[in-house]
Amino acid sequence: MAAFHSSFEYVLEWWKQLVGESEGKGGKGIFPSSAHYTTDLHSLGQLVQEGTRNLFETFLLVEKSSKVIEVEKDNCDRDGLGYLEGKSLDFINEKAYKGSANAHLEGGVPNLAITLKERSAHNLGQLFYFFERAVAMTGYLSGVNPFDQPGVEFYKRNMFRLLNKPSQ
Fold first, then answer.
1. Any signal peptide, and if so, which residues (predicted)?
2. Under the phi-then-psi rule, with left for phi > 0, alpha for psi from -120 to 50, and beta for the rest, what region is 26?
């Protein structure tokens, strides 16, 4: 999953844990990964664009940001970004999303977007509920119990043994 707003950093981390622990059993499940675009767009975008075709891309977007930040004027245009003067970061991120989503789709990577109207407690609650329900359903459809994590117990048992944790 990729997001263009840094405020979604921990949502992406939560999503990776949810999907990995719920679906990754019995040789099944997708590999959940996250990207913080535009930061990761250059490095991971290359892999998405021309790498092995074993993935799909989900974008997490927000229509209305709580804070508007605009690119300031630089009379010298030292960084060559003068053409962005007066444009908001939301506007720039929207174009980055559209450009990368279209390029990746043309490159053979299916993608979809989940768009929140605004970042609010209500909308985040709906998003969490959506993912929890979707992951439970895909787990059952895949023939795995999405509510246990037997693989996690293996590494924990080994780690505690190596740390000489007393038995309880």
1. none
2. left
Beta bridge partners of 61: 115
State what percent of residues in the chain have pLDDT above 70.
100
What residue numbers bound the domain in which 54 lies? 2-162
The domain that contains 61 carries what CATH number?
3.40.50.10490
Whether the Cβ atoms of residue 37 and residue 61 lie closer than 8 Å to each other: no
Which listed residue (42, 72, 73, 106) is catalytic? 42
122 is catalytic: no
Inside any domain, residue 102: yes
Respond yes or no: is residue 42 known to be catalytic.
Answer: yes
Our count of domains for the chain comes to 1
156 part of the active site: yes
Contact partners, residue 89, CB within 8 Å, separation at least 6: 65, 69, 70, 71
Q: Residue 168: which pLDDT band, with cuts at 50, 70 and 90?
A: confident
The catalytic position among 5, 21, 25, 104 is 21
Q: Could you read off the pLDDT of 2-13 as tens digits, one per residue?
A: 999 888 999 999
Q: Helix 121-142 vs helix 9-23: angle between axes, to the nearest 10 degrees?
A: 20
Question: How far is it, in rounded angstroms, from Cα 12 to Cα 5?
Answer: 11
Please identify which of the residues 64, 98, 156, 165 carries the catalytic annotation: 156
**18 within some domain:** yes
